[in-house]
């Protein structure tokens, strides 16, 4: 991975968060991003939904914005010119601990270019 990081000008990766009764990005009730997922990059940097623009991920699809008992999915993309931030090595759901919550992950390979 270190060699790929050193030889790359940019990289990107997608995370698909499958959810049931868990907010992954924007909470439909409060219309804020306080419950948004936090990702940890390869270099230990936290990647968030808001904050410093270079450490901010984008959301392609947000189907995890309400707790309605149905399964949904949120697709997150992180693009960077600092290739040492990828791959994503950890993920922290913030809206966790309530009864009847479930989630799963699909993590795409990193594309170094």
The SSE order reads HEEEEEEEE
Q: What's the Cα radius of gyration?
A: 14 Å
CATH-level-2 architecture? Sandwich
Give the N-terminus to C-terminus distance in angstroms.
13 Å
| CATH structural fold name | Jelly Rolls
| Structural class label | mainly beta
User: Spans of 5+ residues with little confidence (pLDDT < 50)?
Assistant: none
* Count, helices: 1
Beta-strand residue fraction: 35-45%
What is the CATH first-level class name?
Mainly Beta
Task: Domain count, please report it.
Answer: 1
Quaternary structure state of the chains depicted? single chain
Mean pLDDT: 95
Give helix % range: under 10%
Give an overview of the whole structure.
- The strands form two sheets. Strands 1, 4, 5, 7 and 8 form a five-stranded antiparallel β-sheet that branches. A three-stranded antiparallel β-sheet has the order 3-2-6, with no helix packed on it.
- The mean pLDDT is 95.
- The longest helix has 6 residues, at 2-7.
- Strand 2 and strand 3 form a beta hairpin.
- It is mainly β and 113 residues long.
- It has one helix at residues 2-7; strands at residues 11-20, 38-41, 46-47, 58-62, 71-80, 88-92, 102-107, 111-112.
- It is elongated and about 45 Å long.
- 26% of the residues are buried.
List keywords for this structure.
Fibrillar collagen NC1 domain-containing protein; collagen; 113 residues; mainly beta; extracellular matrix structural constituent; 5% helix; five-stranded antiparallel sheet; three-stranded antiparallel sheet; Jelly Rolls
């Amino acid at each position: 991975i270190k060699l790929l990081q050193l030889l790359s000008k940019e990289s990107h990766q997608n995370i698909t968060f499958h959810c049931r009764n868990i907010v992954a990005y924007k909470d439909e009730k409060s219309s804020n991003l306080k419950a948004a997922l936090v990702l940890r990059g390869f270099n230990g940097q936290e990647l968030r939904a808001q904050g410093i623009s270079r450490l901010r991920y984008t959301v392609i699809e947000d189907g995890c914005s309400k707790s309605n008992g149905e399964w949904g999915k949120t697709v997150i993309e992180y693009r960077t010119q600092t290739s040492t931030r990828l791959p994503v090595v950890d993920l922290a759901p913030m809206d966790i601990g309530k009864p009847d919550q479930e989630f799963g992950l699909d993590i795409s390979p990193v594309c170094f270019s």
